[in-house]
Design brief:
Chain lengths: 303, 325
Amino acid sequence: MTTQALTAVNPTKRPSGASTLKRAVTNRIGSAVALVIAVLWTIPTFGLFVSSFRPEAEIKGSGWWTILSNPQFTLENYAEVLGGATSTNLAVYFQNSIVIAVPATLAPLILAIMASYAFSVLEWKGRDVVFVAVFTLQIVPLQMALIPLLRIFSGTEVTDTFPFLPLWVAHTIFGLPLAIFLLHNFMSEVPRDLIEAARIDGAGHVTVFLRVMLPLMLPAIASYAIFQFLWVWNDLLVGLTFSGGSRTVQPLTAALAAMTGDRGQDWHLLTAGAFVSILLPLVVFFALQRFFVRGLLAGSVKG
Amino acid sequence: MGFLLFSKNGQLVLAVIAFLAVLAILLLVARFADRMKGRGQTVVMTLVFGGPALLLLAVGLIYPAIRTLWMSVMDARSESFVGFSNYAYLFEGGLTALGNTLLWVVLVPIGSTLIGLVYAVLIDNSRFEKVAKSLLFLPMAISFVGAGIIWKFVYEYRGSAQEQIGLLNAVLTWIGLEPLRFLQDSPWNTLFLIAVMVWIEAGFAMVVLSAAIKAVPNDIIEAARLDGANAWQLFARVTVPSIRPSLVVVLTTICIATLKVFDITQTMTGAEFNTQVLANEMYDWSFTFGDNGIGSAMAVVIFVLVIPLVIYNVRQMNKNKAVRG
């Protein structure tokens, strides 16, 4: 997995020198340190996971590590956060998160693929200047655009009928600069000859875009799609502000954050709720880790 | 029709259909433009392919950013000009947030890069490399809110008479110490929040640095070894300088991410007990207190702090491109 990502990033470099370095490092101490880090990085999540299956009284009365001497498990916590009373039910927010995340991943993705075609294949005056401007927009923190963008939506009647619209649009806009930058990088690596050849054969831009570019871009598209999906799913700021605090549209993260404030001691709900919220990202992450890592390296190393 | 308009899943389907319909129309226009000749074609094509994204960015990012800049010198309701008094607040009431933010911005990048780097070197080419990487990388997939809950549970405090349910306090009592109120007792609580961000970002640092380490040519290291360099010297004098460009990217990227994070304080302490940070204070002023003046000024300050980092980053990248040829 990583070697693939590596060759993608640095195809010209010679064989790794890291193995020699590794051999030189005192092996046993090194392994011990690595093990300690690995344990520190896993234990907290593991503890949460185990706790989410313990009965309420047990969670509140003893540490999760006591399961070895006192194994008691229940699905009660999950039943409560997925199907319990309205005040503790997170199922509706899970659905909200999905309704938010799917269009908010598709829209910036497709718009950015099209824009990168305009920036890498089409030739027009001022193209490079505009591209640098878009690249620069990446540095504008979300916070800078939040209130005025919110104002554009507030008071319009469209949001009464389509309450998710502000969230979709906001996520799309905030995702675009990085998306265009990443996808443009990938697209400008497609050999010009390939496009020229297709053009000479009489293919129009639409054909080149759909038949030549899209298939070649699939790995890059997958990378960005995972990024954006995880970003939107995990986002709190946009979810809090653009949902207007409404239960109809708030994402899971916002509901969980509210729950930690209101029911900070209800660990049976918090642990199960948190696990519900991280389950989907973890599945996506493990299933598509290869693309995720590749996208990460392309975004940060290649520049 | 009712399904599409009045149920959530229906709206999801409707949104996707509507979006695809717009795309189809755009591509249809482009299909016609394919038959045109010369400049006209280029103009239409550019508008079809680049237009929608550029329009959204102009309306949704550039215009709002300029407006925020303007709002930051206006009063709470954006009605009258107040000069720089909103910014002055930052050095009065907002001093805690400013100080804490600086602490975050220094400690998070250093902490996560250091751990990521050490870990990347240690597990390199080991039998368990792939699994070991996934373990450290896993928090990257978890939301800040999720991570906040995970760690709040680790930090959970009970009076010394009760049985501890938080892992850290359990460890403290096992070794005979008094349990600590990790999240309430200032100033240390900020450090415990910072640890959470380090926990999240170390995986990112590790993945990028691991790729960079693997790209260091073997002969440089062999040569240094023949010259009698020990493991530490190899690491400090050969590996680290060779991966310097990646180190800079990792440090600055994490710095920028840290400046903007508000979810951790929001979930774990509600920004109380002196743990306030700029991004959280921006949220509080804008959305809890309804003062757009101070809120906007905070946003501008975050923006201003990001700029030098980005410039440095871009400069480094250009320099590296020049060196690599």
